[in-house]
User: Fold this.
Amino acid sequence: MTRFLDILFSLFGLIVLSPLFLVLYVLIRMESKGGGFYSQERVGRNGVPFRLYKFRSMRVGSDRKGLITVGERDNRITRTGLFIRKYKLDELPQLWNVLTGDMSLVGPRPEVEKYTRLYTPEQKRVLSVRPGITDWASIEYIDENRILGEAADPDKAYIEQIMPDKIALNMRYINHHTVGEYFRIIFATFFNIGK
Assistant:
């Protein structure tokens, strides 16, 4: 049932939001050189890698300087990038990932392999479901960039504090994977955007 909802909502979103996609794409291209979209390999369901798409919020080549972003004090992020990150608009191209089946609207956020290699056997359960655009962990850690920005060692803080907490929250959805929970997470996400 959730796969049917994913297809329905992602297709509807891509059509209805296409004018916004165009505006954001132009704004990103006007501010800094490079394409308007960014893709990165992430680990999906059953450990299968896929290309995740976003609107580009950082200068081209920024990911070579580290995978962790630290909010407003990260000088790799453009002005437009700060805005689209605050309102989660950079995530909109993932509706395509949802439509093609690599992702769901709701599910554990997909990680890069660097971090999934650190998972314990129990934590690897998050790879048993389709990754999502939003989940309880995304809502709980809506200010993740601020937390990492205040950390002396952002990568260490992510690995030792944030990642285990997020995986524990992911389990809440994995253990209670219902249509009702699907909609609760979607509504909670909209309620918390921009906070």
